[in-house]
Design brief:
Distance between the termini: 124 Å
Number of helices: 42
CATH class of the largest domain: Alpha Beta
Number of domains: 5
Low-confidence stretches: 246-266, 300-327, 515-533, 932-943, 953-993
Mean pLDDT: 78
Shape: elongated
Strand order of the largest sheet: 7-9-8-10-11-12-13
CATH architecture of the largest domain: 3-Layer(aba) Sandwich
CATH topology of the largest domain: Rossmann fold
Number of strands: 22
Radius of gyration: 44 Å
Largest sheet: 7 strands, mixed
Helix content: 40-55%
């Protein structure tokens, strides 16, 4: 007899269970035959098989295989494989389908024996619920139906079908598929007897991913939620896993096919199942922990096949990597598709699967029954975070992605640690909170523990709370070493995956000191002080592969000592768009105030704590205070700024997601840090205080060194950099290291110094340093002066009393004047020149030579600006002083006369100008005759200048006036160049020396 070739199998549902199977079979044959064309009656062969329905005792189903083709009346199902064809068979409506969605029972268990187990087979992605399990031979044996009915006759064997076709427009995710499976399970295991029946799962490829998701969900489900789902985990005894992509699929072939389809509906699913998927990594870790006492048989392929919508799974991904006592690892000599297709009962792969199912059947009844007899003792992993999730959390996606990738890449094979470091108030803890909740969303089987690490007592209390949460045996024993007990529990991989968040890890000594202070943590509970001294707290942070640690710290050194440097993530102030979004989550901003809002976040330096603090202040005063009002108050004075950013005593301004021991006010937060630095690193505190006196940006190293050695300076810089209080960069021109501090840090430092009554001392120091550092009179010092100029302007505002400070202020002003004069910025030079004049007058009096020369310099600047009348007044004041103090025969007196003559000439007063120049020339000649010992004075230049002035300023005809073309190039004016004028400020410095 020639063997028939396999045909397409259809499922018929809706058959009445009240009729005997043989009657139903005959009725179906008659019905189908009546719907066949005459030619089909000759060519088609079929034989219905009646089986029970999984869902309803009132119905049965039939499986019909057509040999020789598909009947024409079912042709619509060929065009629409996911559809159904409804027809009337007598008084009964029945449905034909070929999709096999939901559960389909494949044969009826033996009636004379109790059912021992439910066997559920779940096919993979883009596979068919029935055809995936059929052999490739001409008979097309479906081993779950054709072989297990003989080898496992006491089991209710079923397939589970779902819409897994990648070519469809479905948008289902792993969670959607898992939810669908659990809903169907509720329908087929809806009595207590069925819920307690042992379960064997057979899963292929993506079907195993769905199964893992369901079992993880089942562990978290209470009896009150749904008894079927809650009992699923206990009822599951064993699993046959064929090529399960626990670590993700290689989806290259799928992506090639859908290339160019930007809106491809399955893109979300592909992202979830791709190799190294975060979701699958978390699920794998959870799955491995919950099935440690289940029987697992993992089968992997020896060779691969690719093609349309075919995905590859490497052997490492196909195995759970459990100990051999828990997982049988069996390689199959077949590709990813053929590994679940067996042609005969003698097939090696089938014999392996059958033998394990028989072993499952032998022990399952007693083991599963015992599980239901004893009370549930499995602890559900919890999230121990003392803060609610911020539903208005915005931004920081780049950092959250970095954390996720870092932990996912190293999990689950190695222990992983990550640290967030940055300035206090920059939002490190908020990021950690958000990450913890996101982790729980994708990996609900992960324990999350929050440990405040600011001091040893709080660390110990957190471990005590963990011990209570996990119901740790022995925790109530007064002599128990809680730290050691919790450590041991965390190291035990059987307890599942965990994440510890070490918040506010700002003190390196807390974790690495072996002092008796930290030893008391263990000693309080009876442990020996000596043992405690030898066990710093860092030793109680496990490094087991089932755990992660996320550190938040303001101190980079403390973080590095707990986490590798490559795992440090710097948290900087927010980007402008994120900062604006953050402010908008706190207050409502009308369009009219949008610009003010942008200004507000800018002056807050984009620091989240400052922004939320300002937002809270505005929100609770919404009836009277707007963003614009707040800005006006803030800009009014530094006192207002400190007040607005220091209001932490009012509960309305508290941040609900900050530890109660940490201030919600940014200024107060930093003051506590400054005190710590002053205690531990006094040189660093001094350096910070000095930096706060200068402009906050590009502070050159040269003005900070002082009398410190290089080593001492580096030791002082290190803590400030470690706590993110300062940043460094290299100057482009000078190649000198430049320092920068955040604007609010500078403000906080000043207010901290005010409390200590030290502001004046540091202002005096900054004036002294700048007076010595700022150069004048040389082109080669221009670049250095340009770097110092913002700092010189800053300290020039310190109007301190005392002769030294006033003199330093005058020197600085003089040298700023010179810089602006040299660069042609005469307006700016004139403004600063007036400051210098006032300073010199205040400290030296109006008749001191330095004061008189300041008058002359200001006159020169006003001359360059074309302000001749003002310049004339300055030169007259200088000349009167020179005559009185030095006399007419001193070299500076004729110079001053000549300068006054040039100013008069510019005003068209040529006769007066000529008289001045002649007077200056006569005085200079007399000086030369009577005084020849001062070689520093250059009389030739004076005489030449005066003669030039005489020639230029002879009274011209009334129709002739000086033209611009007569003025010397490069700004030369014919002014005589002498000791006082050849370099602005030079004689001032000379006098001081």
């Amino acid at each position: 007899m020639v063997a028939r070739k396999k045909g397409l199998v259809f499922r018929i549902t809706g058959l009445p269970a009240s009729k005997p199977d043989d009657k139903l079979k005959e009725s179906l044959k008659t019905f189908i035959s009546s719907n066949l064309a005459e030619s089909e009656l000759l060519n088609l062969q079929f034989d219905p098989a009646i089986v029970p329905s999984c869902y309803d005792n009132e119905e049965k189903i039939a499986l019909v295989e057509f040999h020789g083709g598909v009947p024409a009346f079912l042709s619509d199902l060929m065009a629409n494989p996911q559809g159904e064809w409804q027809v009337e068979m007598g008084s009964t409506d029945i449905s034909f389908d070929q999709h096999f969605f939901g559960f389909t029972q494949l044969y009826e268990p033996r009636a004379d024996l109790p059912v021992t187990a439910d066997i559920i087979a779940i096919a993979g992605l883009d596979r068919h619920a029935y055809r995936s399990w059929r052999g490739k031979g001409n008979l097309g044996r479906m081993w779950l139906r054709d072989f297990l009915c003989k080898d496992m006759p006491c089991c209710r064997t079923m397939t589970y079908g779902y819409n897994s076709k990648l070519a469809t427009h479905g948008v289902d995710t792993i969670m959607d598929y898992g939810r669908g499976l659990m809903e169907e399970l509720k329908k087929i295991r809806n009595t207590e007897e069925l819920r307690k029946r042992p379960l064997f799962f057979i899963a292929h490829s993506f079907g195993g991913v769905i199964l893992a998701h369901c079992l993880i969900k089942a562990v978290q489900t209470d009896e009150d939620d749904h008894p079927t789902v809650a009992s699923l985990y206990r009822a599951t005894y064993g699993m046959l896993m064929f090529g399960i992509p626990h670590k993700g699929l290689v989806v290259d072939d799928i992506q090639k096919i859908v290339a160019g389809e930007s809106n491809y509906p399955r893109s979300t699913l592909l992202a979830q199942i791709r190799s190294k998927s975060d979701l699958l990594a978390f699920q794998l870790a959870d799955f491995k922990n919950l099935i440690r006492d289940r029987k697992v048989d993992s089968k992997s392929k020896r060779w691969r096949r690719t093609g349309e919508f075919i995905t590859a799974v490497d052997s490492d991904s196909a195995l759970l990597q459990l100990p051999d006592s828990m997982e049988d690892k069996i390689p199959l000599n077949a590709d990813h598709i053929l590994m679940v297709k067996f042609n005969s009962r003698s097939d090696q792969g089938y014999r392996s699967a059958r033998d394990r199912l028989k072993l499952f059947e032998q022990d399952a009844t007693n083991v599963v029954a015992a599980r239901f007899l004893r009370p549930q003792s499995i602890l559900k992993p919890a999230i121990m975070i003392p803060f609610q999730r911020d539903t208005a959390f915005v931004g920081r996606e780049d950092i959250l992605v970095k954390i996720s990738k870092k932990l996912q890449q190293e999990a689950p094979h190695t222990h992983s640690r990550v640290a967030l470091v940055g300035l206090g108030g920059v939002g490190k803890s908020q990021i950690a909170i958000e990450y913890a909740y996101r982790l729980r969303d994708v990996a609900p089987q992960t324990w999350v523990f929050w440990v405040y690490a600011g001091n040893a007592a709080r660390f110990k209390q957190a471990y005590t709370d963990i011990a209570a949460k996990i119901e740790l045996p022995g925790r109530d024993d007064p002599k128990a070493d809680i730290l050691r007990l919790v450590y041991n529990w965390l190291c035990d991989e059987r307890n599942g995956r965990w994440l510890i968040i070490l918040d506010n890890t700002d003190d390196d000594q807390v974790f690495h000191s072996t002092s008796t202070d930290l030893g008391n943590v263990a000693h309080e509970r009876g442990a020996s002080r000596e043992a405690a001294q030898l066990a710093p707290l860092a030793s109680f942070l496990p490094q087991s592969s089932n755990g992660w640690i996320l550190v938040t710290s303001r101190d980079r050194v403390a973080a590095v000592n707990l986490v590798e440097t490559r795992n440090l993530f710097q948290v900087d102030p927010m980007a402008e768009d994120e900062a604006l979004m953050l402010l908008k989550t706190r207050i409502s901003i009308d369009k009219a105030f949008e610009n003010d809002a942008q200004t507000l976040i800018r002056i807050m330096g984009y620091i989240p704590l400052a922004i939320t603090h300002a937002g809270a202040y505005i929100a609770v005063r919404a009836q009277t205070v707007t963003v614009s009002t707040y800005l006006d108050l803030f800009r009014e004075s530094e006192e207002n700024q400190a007040h607005l950013l220091s209001r932490s005593e009012n509960q309305e301004l508290r941040d609900m997601r900050r530890d109660s021991s940490v201030s919600s006010a940014v200024i107060t937060t930093w003051h506590a840090l400054f005190e710590k630095i002053r205690t531990m690193y006094p040189e660093a505190a001094d350096l910070l205080s000095l930096m706060a006196m200068f402009d906050r940006e590009r502070i050159p190293e040269s003005i900070l060194l002082g009398s410190m050695s290089r080593v001492q300076f580096e030791d002082a810089v290190a803590p400030l950099s470690s706590f993110s209080l300062i940043k460094t960069q290299l100057g482009q021109q000078t190649k000198e290291r430049l320092f920068e501090m955040h604007g609010l840090v500078q403000l906080a430092t000043k207010k901290w110094l005010e409390v200590q009554m030290q502001v004046g001392n540091w202002q005096k120091a900054s004036l002294r340093i700048m007076a010595a550092a700022l150069q004048s009179g040389h082109h080669e010092t221009l670049a250095a002066s340009r770097v110092l100029l913002p700092h010189a302007r800053k300290v020039l505002n310190y109007a301190l009393g005392g002769r030294e400070s006033i003199r330093n202020r005058a020197i600085i002003a003089d040298r700023i004047v010179w810089y602006h004069f040299f660069t042609g910025e005469y307006e700016a030079a004139g403004t600063i020149g007036r400051v210098a004049l006032v300073s010199w007058t205040g400290v030296l009096g109006v008749e001191h030579l330095d004061t008189l020369r300041s008058f002359s310099e200001l006159g020169l600047l006003l001359y360059r600006q074309g302000k001749y009348e003002e310049a004339e007044r300055m030169h007259w004041r200088a000349l009167e002083g020179y005559k009185k103090v030095l006399g007419v025969e001193h070299p500076d007196t004729p110079t001053s006369i000549s300068q006054l003559g040039s100013v008069l000439a510019r005003q068209g007063r040529y006769e007066e100008a000529q008289g001045m120049h002649q007077q200056a020339l006569a005085g200079s000649e007399k000086v030369l005759r009577t005084s020849r010992t001062d070689t520093s004075w250059t009389p030739g230049a004076v005489i030449s200048g005066i003669q030039t002035g005489l020639e230029r300023n002879r009274v011209p005809p009334s129709s002739a006036r000086p033209r611009l073309s007569q003025v010397r190039p490069n700004g030369a004016t014919g002014l005589p160049v002498t000791g006082a004028s050849k370099s602005i400020g030079y004689e001032v410095v000379k006098a001081l020396l």
